[in-house]
Amino acid sequence: MFLFSFYVVVRPVMIIGITDHVDLLKFDDGICGLSLLSSTVMNLKPCPSKENKEAKEGAHVDVMLNPGDLYLMHGEARYNYTHGIAQRTFDEWNGEKIMRGERISVTMRWLQPQ
């Protein structure tokens, strides 16, 4: 079953941010998001694991989401990394300071078959 969720930030992301998380396992593999209005950086960090804790610490990937960008997360990125947006007033990307503004995120997910 397809589930469509519409996430609207009516204030700049700097005020609230989005806590690092892995989307609920009730959703099938594959998350699709469309970023609108303003740019922000999404942080991907490896989930802690007992087997590979040492290799996971400190590793992360930052992804610039510009207005109109579409992102897909599946497989390892979906299940083995948290994603979130830090609470701050601006992002730094390639040495450039980018002020945050209001942002709309449209997210699409599929429910696991029951």
Mind explaining what this structure looks like?
The protein is mainly beta and 114 residues long. It has three helices and ten strands. It has helices spanning 13-16, 53-56, 76-79; strands spanning 2-9, 18-21, 27-36, 40-46, 61-65, 70-73, 81-85, 90-93, 96-99, 103-111. The strands form three sheets. A four-stranded antiparallel β-sheet has the order 1-10-3-6. It has a four-stranded antiparallel β-sheet with strand order 2-7-4-5. A hairpin with a 2-residue loop joins β8 (90-93) and β9 (96-99). It is globular and about 45 Å long.
Search tags:
four-stranded antiparallel β-sheet, 10 strands, mainly beta, globular, 114 residues
Chart the SSEs and their pairings.
Elements: E1 2-9, H1 13-16, E2 18-21, E3 27-36, E4 40-46, H2 53-56, E5 61-65, E6 70-73, H3 76-79, E7 81-85, E8 90-93, E9 96-99, E10 103-111
